């Protein structure tokens, strides 16, 4: 064990008011909110990898607040009021991102979004009308969702029976967002120590002792923003890992596709990245296998994605698959984010259920409010 110098003890490893574990979107937004509200607090984020490594820089970059089949399913699962509450958080989360970052900084593309439906059912128009009436007080739009079946062919899509448009949806660059948010958080005075895996934490009477590499850090408040990896550090936390896999094609010069697209309650999602296609999902083809924190890709899901791409999106083009990766989401049992204390002055903020781009800016406000009660 290398002993620390007095300089290190009094700077990087000095006792902190707040330590956050995890420098993904949740950890960053939480630190940002805390420091903005209380600039005098000393805050350090401990991130185990050289860059964040879980979901935040490995997602699809959809700035979306929900597709019709996903929201209908949510309403069934969690009730209409809760579904609307989460839509509102997502809607406000996207607005907040835009308040803090210019379109150019995060490649925010107001391309509009769509949901593809396999067969046109009788209920579809009724369902759309019902959701539009529920969402109107949230977004102010009289019709967030609109049938545009006639756009299927011009977008180059095949094998679907209906298409629903949502003009408010957008795409962004996940790497640029995380990097810009990191810089903003550091500019407020938050310290981020990368390459710092937390391996243990011990609650003492007046502080928590954190073990990180071969170092110790004391903190008044500890917050885990470790999402799918939280079970490695905390007992009895109801979060399940869910791997999401993604492929990206080579550039396609005559690509017709433009926008963000969802299918099958969000189990498939795709968008254009300039003149490439990004496609992710198919987790429902092997649910058990995909309940893992392993970030690699699997033959089953990669095959399912390539088949879907060729069948529905890209049969008319010539392309190769140039990029493949896996990321890991954290799901709660009831599909609602979890912000709660787990011991005195120890908290978790996690489980954005595959929607963290839009949700983390708002869930971080709840986490910060809860934690700041300790400093009143
Ligand atoms: C393939 C895929 C596609 C997605 N697409 C979208 C989308 O289009 N739109 C959308 O809104 N959401 C999407 N999501 C979900 C979104 O990315 C997540 O909800 C969000 O990024 C979660 O952020 P987080 O900070 O909670 O978790 P993470 O980004 O996973 O961050 C957790 C961090 O904790 C660190 N950590 C873990 N354990 C330790 C430890 N012991 N010590 C120190 N550090 C530790 C990890 O290294 C990691 O950096 C997608 C996710 C995936 C995987």
Would you summarize the structure shown here?
This protein has two domains: 8-57 and 176-238 and 334-375, FAD/NAD(P)-binding domain; 112-170 and 240-331, D-Amino Acid Oxidase, subunit A, domain 2 (D-Amino Acid Oxidase, Chain A, domain 2).
Describe the structure.
There is one protein chain. With 376 residues, this protein is an alpha/beta fold. The protein has two domains: 8-57 and 176-238 and 334-375, FAD/NAD(P)-binding domain; 112-170 and 240-331, D-Amino Acid Oxidase, Chain A, domain 2, CATH 3.30.9.10. It contains nine helices and 18 strands. It has helices spanning 6-9, 25-37, 68-78, 80-100, 103-106, 123-139, 174-187, 299-313, 356-372, and strands at residues 16-21, 43-46, 62-63, 113-117, 146-147, 162-166, 170-171, 191-193, 198-203, 208-212, 215-224, 240-249, 260-263, 268-273, 276-281, 321-331, 338-343, 346-350. Strands 1, 2, 8, 9, 10, 11, 17 and 18 form an eight-stranded mixed beta sheet that branches. The chain has an eight-stranded mixed beta sheet with strand order 5-6-4-13-14-15-12-16, covered by helices on one side. A two-stranded antiparallel ribbon has the order 3-7. Strand 10 (208-212) and strand 11 (215-224) form a beta hairpin. Helix 2 (25-37) packs across helix 9 (356-372), helix 3 (68-78) packs across helix 4 and helix 4 (80-100) crosses helix 6. The two termini are 38 Å apart. The mean pLDDT is 96. Flavin-adenine dinucleotide (FAD) binds next to helix 2, strand 12, strand 16 and helix 9.
Secondary structure layout:
Layout: H1 6-9, E1 16-21, H2 25-37, E2 43-46, E3 62-63, H3 68-78, H4 80-100, H5 103-106, E4 113-117, H6 123-139, E5 146-147, E6 162-166, E7 170-171, H7 174-187, E8 191-193, E9 198-203, E10 208-212, E11 215-224, E12 240-249, E13 260-263, E14 268-273, E15 276-281, H8 299-313, E16 321-331, E17 338-343, E18 346-350, H9 356-372
Parallel strand pairs: 1-2, 1-11, 2-8, 4-13, 11-18
Antiparallel strand pairs: 3-7, 4-6, 5-6, 9-10, 10-11, 12-15, 12-16, 13-14, 14-15, 17-18
The structure holds flavin-adenine dinucleotide (FAD).
Flavin-adenine dinucleotide binds at residues 21-27, 46-49, 52-56, 58-62, 197-198, 225-229, 232-233, 244, 246, 280, 327-329, 350, 352, 354-358, 360.
């Amino acid at each position: 064990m290398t002993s620390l110098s007095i300089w290190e003890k009094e700077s990087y490893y000095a006792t902190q008011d707040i330590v956050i574990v995890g420098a993904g979107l949740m950890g960053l937004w939480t630190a940002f909110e805390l420091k903005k509200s209380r600039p005098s607090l000393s805050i350090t984020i401990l991130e185990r990898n050289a860059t964040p490594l879980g979901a935040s820089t490995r997602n699809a970059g959809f700035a979306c607040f929900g597709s019709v089949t996903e929201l209908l399913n949510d309403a069934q699962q969690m009730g209409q009021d809760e579904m609307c509450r989460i839509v509102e958080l997502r809607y406000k989360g996207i607005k907040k991102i835009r308040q803090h970052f210019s379109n150019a900084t995060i490649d925010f593309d107001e391309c509009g979004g769509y949901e593809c439906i396999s067969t046109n059912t009788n209920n579809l128009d009724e369902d759309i009308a019902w959701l539009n009436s529920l969402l109107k007080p949230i977004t102010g739009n009289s019709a967030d969702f609109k049938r545009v079946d006639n756009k299927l062919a011009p977008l180059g899509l095949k094998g679907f029976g209906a298409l629903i448009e949502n003009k408010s949806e957008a795409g962004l660059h996940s790497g640029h967002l995380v990097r810009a948010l990191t810089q903003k958080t550091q500019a407020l005075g938050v310290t981020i120590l990368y390459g710092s895996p937390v391996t243990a934490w011990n609650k003492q009477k007046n502080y928590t002792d954190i073990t990180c590499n071969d170092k110790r850090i004391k903190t008044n408040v500890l917050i885990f923003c470790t999402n799918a990896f939280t079970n490695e550090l905390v007992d009895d936390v109801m979060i399940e890992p869910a791997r999401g896999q993604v492929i990206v094609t080579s550039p396609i010069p005559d690509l017709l596709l433009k926008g963000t697209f969802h299918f099958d309650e969000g189990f498939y999602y795709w968008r254009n990245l300039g003149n490439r296609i990004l496609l992710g999902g198919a987790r429902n083809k092997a649910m058990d296998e995909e309940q893992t924190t392993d970030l690699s890709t699997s033959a089953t899901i990669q095959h399912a994605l390539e088949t879907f791409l060729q069948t529905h999106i890209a049969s008319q083009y010539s392309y190769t698959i140039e990029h493949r990766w896996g990321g890991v989401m954290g799901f709660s049992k009831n599909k609602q984010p979890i912000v709660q204390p787990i011991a005195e002055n120890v908290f978790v903020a996690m489980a954005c259920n595959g929607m963290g781009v839009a949700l983390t800016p708002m869930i971080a406000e709840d986490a910060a409010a809860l934690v700041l009660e300790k400093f009143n």
